Amino acid sequence: MNKLNYLCLVALVLLAFSETGVAQQSRADSILTVFHTQPQTVLVAAHRGAHHQFPENSLAAMGAAIKAGAHILELDVRETQDGELVVLHDKTVDRTTDGKGEVASLTYDDVRRLVLTHRGTPTEHRVPTFKEALLRCKDSILVDIDFKAESEEAAMKVCQVVAELGMEEQVLFFLYDYRQMPRLHAFNPRIKVMPRAYSPADLAAISAMNIATIIHIDDSYYDAALIEPLVKKGIRIWANTLGQVDQQKEEGYALFFKDMALVNVVQTDQPEAMVAFLRKNQTN
Fold first, then answer.
1. DSSP element (H, E) containing 220
2. For 26-37, what is each residue's pLDDT tens digit?
3. How far apart are CA 80 and CA 106, in angstroms?
4. Among 213, 201, 208, 204, which Cα is nearest to 171's?
5. Higher pLDDT among residues 19 and 174, named by residue
6. Dihedral angle sign, alpha carbons of residues 5, 11, 16, 20
7. Are 236 and 38 in contact (CB under 8 A)?
């Protein structure tokens, strides 16, 4: 090996490893460190990506959310008639594409011929598969899977794709029914389960299972006396600012965190504005 090649090799090694000799963390790994060790730091979840700039759930919207500094990206996952997992929020393609029909009644070939619309106007963006979306997010941002397919087989398929890509630690699997937690956790304990709690009774039941590291709550029953023991237990608390709070931006966010001070993951339609608000107001 000549001197030039040797110096190039040394440079590559230095790029791959930090001064301590440990491989440098990806952005997703850094977010995970904060997720698990800094409960005082609020994490921002981008609802369907940065969809004010690009079509919702498009690869471009995902990239824009990462660029905006969001920590978590919400993806809506559905299954086509022939079993392909795609990222679309609605039951039908009518609102978000130039096509019509229910996702479950269309083949993947049908779906991939469609283009996504933005504010009613067709674009060059296509409906991504679940795998394409995960690959866009890999190492860059955590992923909240809002599973909207109807079969348990599809849910297991989602988990299999996550595992194939080595992204178990990077994913949250949102459950509308917390009673499904044990089964999903048993299938792959490395995938974080995020149940929704609709009441204080749900909170108690979820906490007793000792599975969830994050819980989606509603503001209707928020009470610091209920939430504080969960945070001390190491559980993240997720709530939404979608709608009026997002529309008010800084004023709305200030009131939101005043009323729900223990929330430490917030889902927003305005990731850039929320990130800017937290950078300005969070001292951690």
1. none
2. 999 999 999 999
3. 6
4. 213
5. 174
6. positive
7. no
- State the amino acid at position 8 in one-letter form: C
Phi, psi of 89 (to 5 degrees): -80, -50
Q: Distance between CA 109 and CA 282 in Å, rounded?
A: 47
Query: What is residue 97's DSSP assignment?
Result: B
Strand partners, 193: 173
Average pLDDT over residues 115-129: 97
Calculate mean pLDDT across residues 58-82. Answer: 98
What's at 185, amino acid-wise?
H
Report DSSP state, residue 96. Answer: T
Q: Are strands 121-122 and 117-118 parallel, antiparallel or unpaired?
A: antiparallel
Sign of CA dihedral 226, 231, 236, 239: positive
Q: Which two tokens stand for residue 82?
A: 């022939």
Q: Average pLDDT of 39-52?
A: 96
Phi and psi of 66, rounded to 5°? -65, -45
Q: What is the pLDDT of residues 76-101, one digit of tens each?
A: 999 999 999 999 999 999 999 999 99
Helices in 3-129 by DSSP H: which ranges? Answer: 3-16, 27-37, 59-68, 108-112
Q: What is the DSSP letter of 23?
A: B
